[in-house]
Amino acid sequence: xxxxxxxxxxxxxxxAVHRAxxxxxxxxxxxxxxxxxxxxxxxxxxxxxxxxxxDLSHMGEITVTGPQAAAxxxxxxxxxxxxxxxxxxxxxxxxxxxxxxxxxxxxxxxADAEFMVVANASNAQVVLDALVERSAGFDAEVRDxxxxxxxxxxQGPEAPGVLASLTDADLVGLKYYAGLPxxxxxxxxxxxxxxxxxxxxxxxxxxxxxxxxxxQALTEAGAGVGLVACGLSCRDTLRLxxxxxxxxxxxxxxxxxxxxxxxxVVKFGKDGDFVGREALAAAASRAAEKPPRVxxxxxxxxxxxxxxxxxxxxxxxxxxxxxxxxxxxxxxxPIAMAYVDAAHAAPGATGVGVDIRGTHEPYEVVALPxxxxxx
Length: 375
Known about the structure:
Layout: E1 10-11, H1 15-20, E2 24-28, E3 31-36, H2 40-49, E4 52-55, E5 60-65, H3 69-76, E6 89-95, E7 101-111, E8 114-119, H4 124-134, E9 141-144, E10 150-155, H5 159-164, E11 179-184, E12 187-192, E13 201-206, H6 211-222, E14 228-229, H7 232-241, H8 277-289, E15 294-300, E16 311-314, E17 317-328, E18 333-340, E19 352-356, E20 359-366
Parallel strand pairs: 1-3, 4-14
Antiparallel strand pairs: 2-3, 4-10, 5-8, 5-9, 6-7, 7-8, 10-13, 11-12, 12-13, 15-18, 15-20, 16-17, 16-19, 17-18, 19-20
Helix pairs in contact: 2-7
């Protein structure tokens, strides 16, 4: 079987480490990734109370450089990337000409004329192709750096202490959504204060050949505070509790940022035109006139777990759809995110249920997020 057949999975630089730890592996967007090492509930609780270590090397890094790098990104993406300071990061989106969301992204400004765009694994090629296509006419280069980085995250209340024991970088001065170059356990890294768990933490971009050494140093540094290796399964329940959208669930090409309740990421006031501008302006005015379905939280009264695609009902009628659902280790009951008609979206709305295999299970509508860490 040739290596480029669709069935051949890609492996991260930490693949042997995961197998040595006894990880249950899964195909995630063409990558063989750890789903869990032991109990996903224990891994989830470790991140909430202590610290967890994640391999996120499947994420797609794309570097944009050149005199017009900022101008290119302002044209290609919905955000105002030219306004991002060096050393800072911005959550944004890339949309198609119709305003549909192609992916949600984090963009780091590494230097005046250098940005790193981090795309979801499942959309990395789509984002790369779109950026290359949209770069025509700009004095800027788009480079596929997916193989140039491994990405390791350490997340949780003990994460700053664990990392501080391995670096001289100024972690105290490193704000949320900022990144700085530094050495961690002697390994050159981009240290970013970002994450997808609802906890404080860091994402470390390093060369793949340094990944194992860094993982082992973090594991040893965190042993005394209860740091554990964590798989993608608990990453999903952590981000769900934190009310963070996942592409393919809360976000898709059939939704604009305004449909997803994330219209704030679209910056109409920035200089120059951008892809999808007209469609997004129309979506913004539609949303102002007639609110689209609203993304809400649902908390189960019973024990049955809602899953993506299940219908949300009220008074015998379908009023929405579940986008993500799982048992919440922190709340101790099943939770879900769902898009529901605005009339039923107010926290505390009564008479709302989820159709779980023909039975309408009662759910309470709550504001997102389900969980917010104490600062």
